[in-house]
Amino acid sequence: MSRSRDEALRARLKLPADRLLILSVNRLSPEKRIDVLIEAVAKMRTPVHLAISSTGPAEEELRAKVDELQLQDRVSFLGFVSDIDLVPLYRLADIFGIASEADLQSLTTMNALACGLPVVAAEAYALPELVHHEENGFLFKPGNSDEMASHLDRLVEDTELRQRMSEQSLAIIASHDRLKVLVEWETLYRRLSNEFIEARERRQRLRLARKNPHYQRPPKHIPRIVRTGPLNGRRQSQV
């Protein structure tokens, strides 16, 4: 998939144009394991450039690791990137890398999918829900920089694979559309509401049956569920 790229932004951020760009957008905290991503870049066969966006308490330690591995010309710390530049930054990238072991939702990974990026991610928490192994990216054992480097190399060296996984990322993120998610949650709440009402009625019938052996079962109650808000601009109700 071809993406429009903001070359002026690339120049302003001093990102090289002669190498593929791996992007990381995550708070620089120990649990995000950006150190694993840096180690993976150091182990790759193919020269790439890693752009790390955001700030955090682990920044000094991560910069020291880059110096230790002599990756100064292959890693850029971008700091805080404004909202107006963030989407163009995603579109400058070729691959999204995330080694975090603590993401319960990972909006940054969802943004990467929405921009058509293949993703290499740790197999932890919410990430496998977004990254389907060998479909729109690769999963690796958390903390395993060797495995991550191998997957990154495979993507860097195979243009057709990146293209195919890019298309799959767009297809996968489509299932997370706001209206689709609202319908799914509404269906779940409706089912749970019905089950609760039916369970309550069963308990009431049992209590009455114990008190009155001639008790007759009343007609089945059909609950009425009313949506709390419109999904398409009109208020609707469900029976």
Task: Describe the structure in your own words.
46% of the residues lie in helices and 13% in strands. The longest helix has 34 residues. Strands 3-2-1-4-5-6 form a 6-stranded parallel sheet, sandwiched between helices. The protein has 2 domains: 168 residues, Rossmann fold (3-Layer(aba) Sandwich); 61 residues, no CATH class. By secondary structure, the chain is of the alpha/beta class. The C terminus is likely disordered.
Task: Provide tags for this entry.
single chain, 239 residues, Rossmann fold, 6-stranded parallel beta sheet, two-stranded antiparallel sheet, 9 helices, 8 strands, elongated
Topology:
Layout: H1 7-12, E1 21-25, H2 34-43, E2 49-53, H3 59-68, E3 75-79, H4 83-92, E4 95-98, H5 107-114, E5 119-122, H6 127-130, E6 137-140, H7 145-157, H8 159-174, H9 178-211, E7 225-226, E8 237-238
Parallel strand pairs: 1-2, 1-4, 2-3, 4-5, 5-6
Antiparallel strand pairs: 7-8
Oligomeric state as shown: single chain
Main sheet makeup: 6 strands, parallel
Strand content: 5-15%
Arrangement of strands in the largest sheet:
3-2-1-4-5-6
CATH superfamily of the largest domain: Glycogen Phosphorylase B
Can you tell me the CATH topology of the largest domain?
Rossmann fold
| N-C termini distance | 44 Å
Derived structural class: alpha/beta
Unreliable sequence segments: 181-185, 234-239
Q: What level of helicity do the residues show?
A: 40-55%
Radius of gyration: 25 Å
Annotation field: number of helices: 9
Q: How many discrete structural domains?
A: 2
* SSE string, helices as H and strands as E: HEHEHEHEHEHEHHHEE
Query: What is the approximate shape?
Result: elongated
**CATH architectural group of the largest domain:** 3-Layer(aba) Sandwich
Q: How many beta-strand elements? A: 8
Average pLDDT confidence is: 86
Kindly provide the name of the CATH class of the largest domain: Alpha Beta
